[in-house]
């Protein structure tokens, strides 16, 4: 019976190792996805700023056309100053010219603001493209590293599964089925040992008589609290 219980403990330990390896294996795709999302976020910022740069260029062109149109209007009014025959007409033209000058000044201010914004965005694009290049190289390196880790984990799981197959071959099929059922129902922990006079799974105190039964080692005993197989651990 002791040999059987030792096998159960080894199986539990092995299954814990396999579960840990599988958890690491399953975490790899998420890590790779995070790398891709980080790269994508930088790419999106670059594209967004490039679109803003294009929009600013369009606005600048529109303002320059408006400025040219305003200049043409002032030129026409100024040429008419020499043709008017009354002070009233002269003053009206001067008023129109003043209005166009004010409009022209405002347009120039807008163009200046656009130029400043365009310069800032150009600097941002340059910086982000540098960051994109660096992140792309880092991502490529990390992706390759994760691929290597994934292969190592897959290989390790295969080795552990082969070891498990050899181990369970020596276990009674009914007992193995019982172990598997408990393991499925108890978050992977089917077999535990006595820890400080309590079940190592649910920490229920073990009564003296039950403790004696465990030490006798003549049958499989399950915890009345959690249903796990309890084993007296021999050092």
SSE layout:
Elements: H1 2-80, H2 87-168, H3 173-185, E1 191-195, E2 198-199, H4 208-216, E3 221-222, E4 229-231
Helix pairs in contact: 1-2
Your description of this structure?
- There is one protein chain.
- This protein is mainly alpha-helical.
- The chain folds into two domains: about 25-150, Helix Hairpins, CATH 1.10.287.1490; about 175-230, no CATH class.
- The protein contains four helices and four strands, in the order H-H-H-E-E-H-E-E.
- It has helices at about 1-80, 85-170, 175-185, 210-215, and strands at about 190-195, 200, 220, 230.
- It has a four-stranded mixed beta sheet.
- A hairpin with a 2-residue loop joins strand 1 (about 190-195) and strand 2 (about 200).
- The longest helix is centred in the middle third of the chain and has 82 residues, at about 85-170.
- The radius of gyration is 40 Å and the shape is rod-shaped.
- The two termini are about 15 Å apart.
- The relative contact order is 0.13.
- The model has no long low-confidence stretch (mean pLDDT about 95).
């Amino acid at each position: 019976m002791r040999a059987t219980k030792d096998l159960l403990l080894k199986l539990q330990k092995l299954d814990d190792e396999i579960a840990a390896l599988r958890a690491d294996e399953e975490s790899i795709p998420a890590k790779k996805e995070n790398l891709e999302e980080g790269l994508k976020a930088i790419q999106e910022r670059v594209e967004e700023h490039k679109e803003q740069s294009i929009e600013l260029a369009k606005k600048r062109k529109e303002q320059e056309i408006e400025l040219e149109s305003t200049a043409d209007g002032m030129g026409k009014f100024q040429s008419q100053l020499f043709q008017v025959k009354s002070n009233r007409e002269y003053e009206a033209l001067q008023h129109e010219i003043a209005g166009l000058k004010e409009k022209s000044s405002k347009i120039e201010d807008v163009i200046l603001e656009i130029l400043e914004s365009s310069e800032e965005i150009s600097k941002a694009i340059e910086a982000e493209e540098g960051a994109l290049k660096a992140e792309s190289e880092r991502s490529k390196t990390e992706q390759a590293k994760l691929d290597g880790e994934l292969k190592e984990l897959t290989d390790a799981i295969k080795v552990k599964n082969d070891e498990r197959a050899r181990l369970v071959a020596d276990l009674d099929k009914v007992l193995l089925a019982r172990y598997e059922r408990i393991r499925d129902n108890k978050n992977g922990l089917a077999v535990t040992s006595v820890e400080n006079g309590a079940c190592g799974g649910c920490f229920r105190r073990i009564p003296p008589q039950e403790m004696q039964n465990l030490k006798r080692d003549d049958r499989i005993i399950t915890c009345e609290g959690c249903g796990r197989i309890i084993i007296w651990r021999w050092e």
